[in-house]
Design a protein that fits this description.
Layout (H helix, E strand, L loop, with lengths): L14 E5 L6 H10 L6 E5 L8 E7 L2 E7 L5 E5 L14 E3 L4 E3 L6 E3 L5 E3 L20 E5 L2 E5 L12 E3 L13 E10 L3 H7 L6 H4 L1 H6 L1 H4 L20 H4 L25 H6 L2 E5 L3 E5 L4 E10 L2 E10 L1 H5 L6 H24 L7 E4 L4 H13 L3
Antiparallel strand pairs: 1-18, 2-11, 3-4, 3-6, 4-5, 7-8, 8-9, 10-11, 12-14, 13-17, 14-15, 15-16, 16-17
The structure holds FE2/S2 (inorganic) cluster and fe (ii) ion.
The site of FE2/S2 (inorganic) cluster (FES) has 10 residues, from loops.
Length: about 375
């Protein structure tokens, strides 16, 4: 959701939503993995999460398991998490630290250099004629680090350009010190819905007043089912109004997305008065990452498809160092609020998912407020060349 521009008129004509079966059909899901997920930048974790040399994270992008690690000399590298001998997973854990400079296969103990994936040893008493270790290094995966966020791309030829994954204005996050912030909480959930079902939900507020009463109270514009004050035909009649319903921003006396709306005296020092007044700033990296930035914290939300009808959601809360160390800042204020809102979304998405199976339902239809959903669906269609 973006408050800086509106494309309200993009849906003056009624437009069909994506075909319903695209949300549950297994063959279609495989196509999306191949054409979208395996050719896009996917957020893995923060650079801070791999602070120690030889620490690693693994991530599953559809059926592709990737290990991302910090080499001994500080560089971040990534490989397909698969042994070149007979294909075993190398690092079965979600995260950990290698015991040595080698990645050792848990099956027959072939060992690879952590720094570049070179095959260093096999476990046979003699290697056969014609066998060259150089031919059996780990398959590399393309990595990019943007402002302390680590992304991988399964397309070996992918070029990093911040505008590319962040389809929506990464510059709006410039004053948020994301690379220096501390992760104070992580929340993981497996949702019974297709990844697009959840993504679309995050891109419209037509559902806000009934699904999110507390959020709609905090962000009065959302209570009007819109994400930009200009998202209604008669917006100019209220231009100049100080009422947050028409002006945007948070309800009176609130500063951030927290249970009581208070930033507890910890507004991020580098923000402008406008950025604080805005209430929320978003960054969107399709297909699966959403960054929300607020007066005192940031939240990174990542989703990954586990199957056609299961999606993993991981949310991380970040605050500046000083805030993390302060004894007068209660993180449950920001964590509980966001989990309440995400749980509400999740319940709506799971209902949405079940209904999509109705045999006569070919596809839904988009309403004018859903122009970000339309952009997303156009992007999906373009990726699939439909
Ligand atoms: S599969 Fe890895 S050493 Fe055999
Ligand atoms: Fe929502």
């Amino acid at each position: 959701m973006n408050e800086h521009s509106t494309d309200y008129n993009a849906l003056k004509q009624s437009e069909p939503s994506l075909p319903a079966r695209w949300y549950f059909d297994e063959a279609h899901h495989q196509r999306e993995l191949k054409e979208i997920w395996h050719k896009s930048w996917v957020y893995v974790c923060r650079s801070h999460d791999l602070a120690e040399p030889l620490s690693f994270r693994t991530v599953e992008i559809g059926d592709q398991n990737i290990v991302v690690l910090r080499g001994e000399t500080g560089e971040v590298v990534a490989f397909h998490n698969a042994c070149r001998h007979r294909g075993s997973i190398l690092c079965p854990e979600r995260q950990g630290r290698l015991k040595s400079k080698l990645i050792v296969c848990p099956y027959h103990q072939w060992a690879y250099a952590a720094s570049d994936g070179r095959l260093v040893k096999t476990s046979s008493f003699a290697e056969p004629d014609g066998f060259e270790r150089d031919d059996y290094g780990l398959f590399p995966v393309t990595v990019a680090v943007w402002r302390g966020l680590i992304f991988v791309n399964l397309d070996a030829h992918a070029d990093w350009d911040a505008d590319l994954p962040f389809q929506r204005e990464p510059a709006h996050l410039n004053n948020f010190p994301i690379e220096h912030m501390v992760t104070v909480h992580t929340w993981r959930k497996v949702m019974a819905c297709n990844w697009k079902t959840f993504w679309e939900n995050f891109n419209e507020c037509l559902h806000c007043p009934n699904i999110h009463p507390e959020l709609s109270d905090l962000v009065p514009m959302y209570g009007r089912r819109i994400v930009n004050v200009k998202d209604v035909p008669d917006w100019a009649d209220h231009a100049g109004s100080e009422d947050p319903k028409y002006r945007g921003g948070l309800r009176k006396d609130s500063q951030t997305w927290s249970m009581d709306g208070s930033a507890q005296g910890h507004v991020i020092a580098s923000l402008t008065a406008d950025e604080v007044a805005r209430g929320q700033t978003y960054g969107v990296a399709m297909p699966g990452m959403f960054v929300g930035a607020y007066a005192d914290h940031m939240r990174i939300v990542r989703m990954l498809p586990l199957s056609a009808e299961q999606t993993e959601l991981v949310a991380e809360w970040l605050v500046p160092h000083e805030t993390a160390e302060a004894d007068n800042y209660d993180i449950s204020q920001i964590v509980d609020f966001a989990i309440m809102v995400m749980d509400q979304d999740l319940a709506a998405c799971e209902l949405n998912q079940r209904g999509l199976h109705a045999a006569p339902l070919q596809q839904g239809v988009l309403m004018p407020e859903e122009y970000h959903v339309k952009h997303f669906q156009d992007w999906v269609r373009a990726r699939l060349q439909e």
